[in-house]
TrEMBL record, chains A, B:
The keyword Transferase applies. Its cofactor is pyridoxal 5'-phosphate. GO terms for biological process: glycine biosynthetic process, by transamination of glyoxylate. Substrate binds at R320. It comes from Thermorudis sp. InterPro entries: Aminotrans_V_dom, PyrdxlP-dep_Trfase, PyrdxlP-dep_Trfase_major, PyrdxlP-dep_Trfase_small, SP_NH2Trfase/AEP_transaminase. This is Alanine--glyoxylate aminotransferase family protein. Belongs to the class-V pyridoxal-phosphate-dependent aminotransferase family. The lineage of its organism: Bacteria, Pseudomonadati, Thermomicrobiota, Thermomicrobia, Thermomicrobia incertae sedis. The keyword Lyase does not apply. It comes from the Bacteria. GO terms for molecular function: alanine-glyoxylate transaminase activity; L-serine-pyruvate transaminase activity.
């Protein structure tokens, strides 16, 4: 958004001064409102992928058992990070494109009563599925254990009530629905996660959330604040609050519906179970006889439009359209017109 | 610098596309030239403080013995990070303000023959001391073990010949002599560090340099590239190469001399051993009867000029003037005039 880009040109201020402290405390309050939490929301330098290990090393100890709910490539990557860090990882595998519902999570929890934490992806970017976080939150609360959530392509674009849903920790990246350049991880932390952190045995320094919390009390960060990105994030929060959270979420739902309807009309099929289709990203299977990657290439070559292909085991099989953050109807209409052109041209060639 | 700020307004490009890859490969080549290395220089999202653990987890295993050369607050903080990560840390303590010379490092190395790595701070920002890295590099090569270097306030402002000096790993932060906003860690990695990395037992994911190296081969980054900051870093490299590395270093030396001479004339004393006074930051002891923090406050209140106070055990005892990156004579003359005004006013009050 122009307002976000302009915010990055604001003059540098001293990152240990009163001006910065007032600014930063205000930003954290805005972030708490978006997370709907009375707990802490912290900002760290990094990208969304750092969230996987931030969540683990701040709440767990090597050898702890965790349940990784894997319904796509990002869930799979989080599970692998957990294994690298020496956690005992039980996987719940969900067919890619289906949702990770309580029906699949409950039996896994019952079979693994010692689970210290559930690793759950709110919005699986690789499949375009929005998983039912509120229901899973309630389930995990009943069972016990922490609910750690990858919210990378969800937070600020999809509803989140961190406290009432029982989310213990959720992280997101500045470049997704936050509409900013990449470079910040935003982490919401609830009281159970803080309590677990007191017992957590992983060594940690740069990712130690306790230090970020302590410094946040005075409006500081443990190391040099990434000021331009924080300016951008504040401008984005201003935009979100001016539009209104409910309206932001409604806009995302409407834009997703627009993309789905338009693509289906052209012969594409949703990868996602329609009941759980994501409001922020749509994954499409091409019409029979068309190669997904060819569609991606032609959209770029003929129209200068970038969409993503599949990743992990979906490589070459789907195309993915992001419609989160600073996206509105006109550019999605242009995208659908381009998709119609490319699809027609490729079909004509067969 | 204006050119750096303008670079951040360049349009966002797709971070997995050919345009990005060409841009990023070119940037890495520029960084290699500044490091004077045939090895790899990698860029990670983060701040300079992340460098401490990036260096450790990529080259060592829990329980390894390391020698931490502590000559100031940043050296001390690195030693503490090493302890947190379960390394056996032997400290060489150097009085703050003195240099960590081979005379103090050699006996410590001889007393600790099993040392796997030496943790060394090239420029100790807290004391304004530039430590003799070339000599220590030669010493460590003779002894064996890795030389891991905190180059946060040094690289791009002070000479560095990574390969010929025997530096195995050195990290720096974008917001120091690189003249950029904070948010990037730049890490130079030599062949011995890579070899050690193959045996290193620390779990790592986001900080895994092997993944950054693998992705750099095709001009990619493992997670979303912090594009605006990379644009800024490229603009800074362009400025540095246009001025010429030798000229950049000479300018820093001249500016440091200007600050030292001016401050001494006003009755301030150098904290640093003059033979090792830093070209990028000067630490000053106030004239007798003046409080350092009062000088810092008055510079801000009367002149709007920000200088730093002391940190760690030097809190309240010194003021520190940074003169690295995009700094030139006129603003340092203004600083010295302001310091003269404040010093005179405070002396008059006594």
């Amino acid at each position: 958004p122009p307002a976000v880009m302009q915010a990055m040109q604001r003059p540098m201020i001293y990152h240990r001064g009163a001006t910065f402290r007032g600014f930063f405390k205000g930003l954290l309050k805005q972030l708490e409102r978006v997370h709907q939490t009375e707990g802490s929301v912290l900002v760290l330098p990094g990208t969304g992928s750092a969230g996987w290990e931030i969540a683990l090393v701040n709440t767990l100890s090597p050898g702890d058992q965790v349940l990784a709910v894997v319904a796509g490539d990002f869930g799979e990557r989080w599970a692998r990070v957990a294994e690298r860090f020496g956690l005992r990882v039980s996987r719940v595998e969900v067919p890619w494109g289906r949702a990770a519902t309580i029906e699949v999570v409950r039996p896994a929890l019952e079979a693994n009563p010692d689970v210290k934490a559930v690793l759950y992806t709110y919005n699986e970017t690789s499949t375009g599925v929005a998983n039912p976080l509120p229901e899973v939150g309630e389930l995990v609360r009943q069972h016990g254990g922490l609910l750690l959530v990858d919210g990378v392509s969800a937070v600020a674009g999809m509803p989140l009530e961190m406290d009432s849903w029982g989310v213990d920790l959720i992280f997101s990246g500045s470049q997704k629905a936050w509409m900013c350049p990449p470079g910040l991880v935003i982490v919401g932390v609830g009281p159970r996660a803080w309590a677990a952190g007191e017992r957590a045995g992983f060594p940690r320094a740069f990712w130690d959330l306790r230090e970020y919390r302590e410094q946040a009390g005075t409006g500081d960060m443990p190391s040099t604040a990434p000021l331009t990105l924080l300016y951008a994030l504040q401008a984005a929060c201003d935009l979100i609050e001016a539009e209104g959270l409910e309206q932001v979420f409604a806009r995302h739902r409407a834009l997703a519906e627009l993309v789905r309807t338009g693509a289906i009309r052209l012969g594409y099929r949703l990868l996602a179970d329609p009941a759980f289709a994501s409001p922020t990203v749509t994954a499409l299977l091409p019409p029979d006889g068309l190669e997904a990657d060819t569609v991606v290439q032609e959209l770029r070559a003929r129209h200068g439009i970038e969409v993503n292909g599949g990743q992990g085991r979906l490589r070459g099989k789907i195309l993915r359209v992001g419609h989160m953050g600073w996206v509105h109807e006109p550019e999605l209409h242009r995208l659908l017109a381009a998709l119609e052109d490319v699809t027609g041209a490729l079909r004509g060639k067969r």
